[in-house]
Amino acid sequence: MLVDSLPEQRAVTAPAPPTHRAIRSLGLLGSVGILVLVALASIAIGAKELPLEQVWHGLFHDTGTYGDVVVDERLSRTVLGLLAGAALGLSGAVLQALTRNPLADPGLLGINAGASAAVVTAITFFGVTTLRGYVWFAFAGAAVVGALVWFLGGSRGATPVRLALAGTAISAALYGCLQAVMITDGAALNKLRFWTVGSLASASDATIVQVLPFFAAGTLLALGLARPLNAVAMGDDTARALGANLGRTRALAMLAATVLCGAATAACGPIAFVGLMVPHVVRSFTGPDLRWILPYATVLSPVLLLGADVVGRVVARPSELQVGIVTAVIGGPVFILLVRRRRTAQL
Questions:
Q1: pTM of this prediction exceeds 0.90
Q2: Helices 290-315 and 226-233, interaxial angle, to 10°?
Q3: So what's the pLDDT on residue 33?
């Protein structure tokens, strides 16, 4: 486990020269442009081929035809991908700063495991069969596990090591229970086999409305923590010397990560590598300053998620691969390459 392994963040983050700030600003603007293009591709390209004029007609002249219905479904799917991607990227960046571990992701603190266990409970013991029903169970499970990790990690005396160990232990226990239930309950296994790999296919307007408040609240909270998390990432002694409230900052960071990842997991299932890889890549060209890492992660994480979703729809036509499978297949080798080239494990 690589904790307290960001030495470049132990020094006080000096203000970037005006030239660097201008370059980063232009880069962020360019990232927004890329995101717009990927979002348009997500609407225009799918498992079912549609002419571009029919896609355009479906966006602006909905008359209830087959093509219009398909475009409406893709639009909901794209919006959910934008929200979930941003949430996963932000939560990953926050957790990497909180644990001072460049390889941390939302799964490290047991948030994904909590959501998954809650969904299994909802399906097996309460007979819940629809996304509308178990989205709240998933979010509640993520929130409960986040609070439990915070408590076991020492509450206001929590340290990165304690939080990571508590999250790992709880994840192992929950996944063991989850597998036991799924093996003994065939109905639960059938209902969960698509959700557990992560997918945007079940996106709907109702789902987006349900999780949107959590995405908005978590995003605002995470972005507002950029400065105090910069201090925390420098080490406890330096953070105290700078006047940072370690307990409050860690509590709010845990809350932001739990809300963001919990909402994304509830709506889409557990999706790997987005919260791990994107903040890590962003840090390589923005530096350790979270005032830049968080906005970049917010924009570029949906690029990865939506791009992977488009690839999954194209490579398996007329069927499709779930986005969680595509991010794992693409993300694993790419991340190994990044680690080997940049020796990120020693940063």
A1: no
A2: 100
A3: 97
